[in-house]
Write a structure and sequence with these properties.
- The protein has helices at about 5-25, 50-70, 80-100, 110-135, 145-165, 175-200.
- It is an all-alpha fold and about 200 residues long.
- It has one domain.
- Helix 4 (about 110-135) packs antiparallel against helix 5 (about 145-165) and helix 5 packs antiparallel against helix 6 (about 175-200).
- The longest helix has 28 residues, at about 110-135.
Length: about 200
């Protein structure tokens, strides 16, 4: 196994671990609704520690995956900007974990404002990285074998991100959580698929 594949394998494990925590938070009696509440709300309450551990898992996993991509194929053919965006995402997620959100109806605190800033940056960097990497990796083996899946996940991420922004409007806020979850699942599955391809790439 090459060094790039090793980093990718560890990265995939971290992201899959996050998805397992994500699923668990929707099964456990957290008191939050998958459609109405933001995912960040899980940081407040009895399962806050589990939520933060999930974020740390995803952050470490994505950082390792980024290192794997930098090692090979790297840039070129990958754009440096796409790798930079991907590299920044884990740090934004750690910021989200360190600064918990304010629950709906609470007065927004400085801590809450910091959380929102990190969340907006994390979403923007995540989509920017996936958008650029999809077009590039889809032309390279073995990613080209799953180019349709990567493109579909990219499109789902784009549509759900637009809907996340739209549902920030107070009247539509009740369904914000649904589209946020679609965005998080589609992007993290993209990372898993991309990582598995890097593990199997003949570098």
């Amino acid at each position: 196994m090459t060094l790039a594949a090793l980093f990718a394998a560890l990265g995939v494990l971290g992201i899959v671990g996050y998805l397992a925590v994500f699923i668990a938070l929707h099964v456990l009696p957290t008191g939050y609704h998958a459609v109405h509440h933001a995912v960040s709300d899980y940081a407040i309450g009895a399962y806050g520690t589990l939520f933060r551990r999930g974020l740390y898992l995803s952050s470490i996993g994505l950082l390792l995956l980024t290192i794997g991509l930098c090692l090979n194929p790297g840039a070129p053919p990958l754009q440096v900007s796409d790798l930079v965006f991907l590299f920044l995402v884990p740090f934004m997620r750690v910021g989200m974990a360190l600064f918990p959100t304010n629950l709906e109806g609470e007065k927004v605190s400085l801590r809450g404002l910091a959380h929102y800033a990190f969340a907006v940056a994390a979403f923007a960097f995540t989509y920017s990285a996936i958008s650029g990497l999809t077009s590039t990796l889809s032309n390279l083996p073995p990613w080209n074998a799953v180019s349709g899946l990567l493109s579909a996940l990219h499109e789902i991420a784009l549509i759900s991100l637009i809907l996340v922004v739209i549902t920030l409007i107070p009247r539509l806020r009740k369904v914000f959580g649904l589209f946020e979850r679609v965005f998080l699942v589609s992007t993290n599955v993209w990372f898993v698929v991309g990582g598995v391809c890097l593990i199997n790439a003949k570098l």
